[in-house]
């Protein structure tokens, strides 16, 4: 089969690789239909690593996907050949202490699609994945919308963990795909005014189109003073969705005493910095968000029922053969890109 693999920094090529092999009776082979390009994929593309996860070339990335069941293991009962499915790219063991207490996202033996040292990604014609990761989708749902359930389920998890009450005042710093993926579920939960920021004007405008109460570009305006002028009592919760230190500094300033910082973005650096005095006097809470927990089905339902309308997140589409063009576009933040989607024939 063909796969698109990283071969060096900012280098990618299509290669013929071995077909996936089922090693368990619960394995399923999926023919890929669509894959979304994620910011973490771009980290591996441009920097070759995220933290301690370092790419050994060649390597296939990609984890936001959907496709069709091609073949099933002998013990598979949840799906059958021909079923259209979305999938959770996190493969947990189901046996460790974390899995047994309902935290499969922090499984001690987690294997994540497209993560170096764990599992090859889904930018290939076929992948093999356990049936426990698969979720059937209706015929009315496109593969592209199903693929968006991956970032949206993370946003739903983050919102449900942190928004304290209806009409809560919310900040989302970073209006890229993950920021929008937090915004849409937050609005369905009854969040009040939502304030969003981004350094790309097109994303600032998109945030308003998706339902933000206010959005601004921190390169062009003092976003903290602008927001606090509107909200002198400050915000209940702020989501850091861009992985940048200046956004974290803004989050601390924007939060009211007792507020909560949700760290959703993945930074390229290794250490966050916090102003201890302000953090302590406000008694702020800091919560990291590690993917999602049991939110895929709910997210797919919200999409299929039209409660969440994420179509406009997809700003650019590419064929499988043109995957490198998609990565170059996203890595350069060109042409107002929000989410690039890869299509398979």
Question: Would you write up a description of this structure?
Answer:
This protein is an alpha/beta fold and 345 residues long. Helices cover 28% and strands 27% of the residues. Strand 4 and strand 5 form a beta hairpin. It starts with a strand and ends with a strand. Helix 3 (143-162) packs across helix 9. The protein folds into two domains: 2-136 and 310-343, Medium-chain alcohol dehydrogenases, catalytic domain (Quinone Oxidoreductase, Chain A, domain 1, Alpha-Beta Complex), CATH 3.90.180.10; 152-288, 3-Layer(aba) Sandwich (Rossmann fold). The protein contains ten helices and 19 strands. The mean pLDDT is 96. It has helices at 39-46, 97-100, 143-162, 177-188, 201-210, 223-230, 245-254, 276-282, 296-304, 323-331, and strands spanning 2-8, 11-16, 27-36, 49-50, 53-54, 64-72, 84-87, 90-91, 111-112, 126-130, 134-136, 170-173, 194-197, 214-216, 235-240, 255-263, 285-288, 314-319, 339-343. 47% of the residues are buried. Strands 3, 6, 7, 10, 11, 18 and 19 form a seven-stranded mixed sheet that branches. The radius of gyration is 20 Å and the shape is globular.
Write the H/E string, N to C. Answer: EEEHEEEEEHEEEHEHEHEHEHEHEHEHE
Q: Strand pairing plus helix content: what structural class?
A: alpha/beta
The CATH homologous superfamily of the largest domain corresponds to Medium-chain alcohol dehydrogenases, catalytic domain
Nearest-integer average pLDDT: 96
Give the CATH class of the largest domain. Answer: Alpha Beta
Biggest β-sheet: count, sense, barrel? 7 strands, mixed
The backbone outline, from C-alpha atoms, is globular
Instruction: Quickly count the helices.
Output: 10
Low-confidence stretches: none
Helical fraction equals 25-40%
